[in-house]
Design brief:
Length: 206
């Protein structure tokens, strides 16, 4: 991939799936790398492996999230919303994935906004589905950092620092310059999410 050989990279990442077809964590690992190769064939393979990860481990929020966003990139907005809805409406093991409902509701709002932008005629139907999930369609720009990791054998923490010397993390979740860490996931896999809501007209790249 670093050498610009997207085809070779796709074959290498695909081999991970072939070798570990029964491992949802490694399917997600390979699928994320296929997804970023930015070609239709790799994206299709990523979607397929994310679908199988959802089937194998529907109790992992990352399976649903990765599938939903890959489907958005493929222009399959209705399916993408179905994927995030499935993740949000299922039950997860108790004491796992703290704050995941908020992360998934945000996802529903973002996927819904993308769907409406692509198919404006379906606006009212999409709004109704989003609201039914207790979410809101994103109407302003935001900047999100979402951390996941593929093991429950250790704890990974999300730290966000800004140019003013501000530091947000599990013990201090609010960044004075703007933004909040939703929750500290200590039981593996994530997602941990930090979001900055930007003023209307702002660019997320800033």
């Amino acid at each position: 991939e670093a050498a610009g050989d997207a085809h070779g990279a796709a074959r290498a990442y695909g081999s991970i799936i072939d070798l570990y077809a029964s491992r949802a964590d490694l399917r997600r690992f390979a699928g994320e790398r296929l997804d970023r190769l930015d070609d239709a064939e790799s994206l299709a393979l990523a979607i397929d492996t994310f679908q199988k990860a959802v089937a194998d481990r529907p109790d992992h929020p990352s399976s649903h999230r990765l599938l939903a966003y890959a489907l958005v990139r493929a222009g399959r907005f209705s399916e993408a919303f179905d994927a995030i809805e499935a993740g949000l409406t299922r039950k997860y093991p108790s004491n796992r994935f703290r704050g995941v409902d908020r992360v998934l509701r945000d996802d529903a709002g973002l996927v819904g906004a993308a769907w409406i932008a692509h198919e404006p005629a379906k606006r009212e139907d999409v709004l109704a589905r989003v609201e039914k999930l207790g979410a809101k369609v994103a109407a302003a720009p935001s900047l999100r950092f979402v951390l996941t990791w593929e093991t429950d054998a250790n704890d990974v923490d999300l730290h966000v620092l800004d140019s003013n010397g501000g530091h947000a993390y599990y013990a201090s979740p609010h960044l004075p310059s703007g933004g909040d860490l939703y929750a500290d996931v200590t039981t593996g896999y994530g997602p941990e999410c930090f979001t900055v809501d930007l003023p209307a007209g702002a660019r997320a790249s800033k």
